[in-house]
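Most newcomers find our protein records easier to grasp once they have seen one. A record pairs a protein's sequence with a compact description of its fold. An example says more than a description, so a record of this kind follows:
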Amino acid sequence: MYPITIPGRVITLRDLRPDDAADALAIVGDNRVTQWLSFDSRDQAATVAMVEGAVARAQLTPRNEYYLAVADTSDRMIGFARLGLTGHQAAKLGYAIGADHWGHGYATDAASTIVDYGFRELRLHRITAAIGPDNAASIAVAKRLGMRYEGRLRDHVYTNNAWRDSLLYSILAPEWSGTTG
């Protein structure tokens, strides 16, 4: 089950590789991106450690995380998509696209592709996403996936020197159509 490659409509999801560190830094080291994530911007050393950790966890048996690079047509990492397995047939969804690549539908394609993989290949029953209340673009992605709003998680994450709420969205396997609206 390692390494995996999952083709999307316009992107490809693939396991991270050590040589992705520079491209990853352009994403997780950019405040425009991390303002929406559950962690602060990372420096080069922290980014290398993040990539190395994802590569190591991808090779565990059983695998409990799918932290995948979102690759463009040239196989360059422009973002990431993640399913963190959380229990019996459940996972948390996360995704980010580099700011220079926003507005092209890559986040929707990446999220749709990994959710489809989660339901069809991993046989998950429930996938959730916790999204910052001000992140309108990510909320729109969740809605395009057919996710439903479940509620507000108060002071859910501590990032950028402040506590932030999250809005919880979910989708169940029987609700998944495999298409985005």
In short: The chain has a mean pLDDT of 95. Residues 28 and 41 are 6 Å apart (CA to CA).
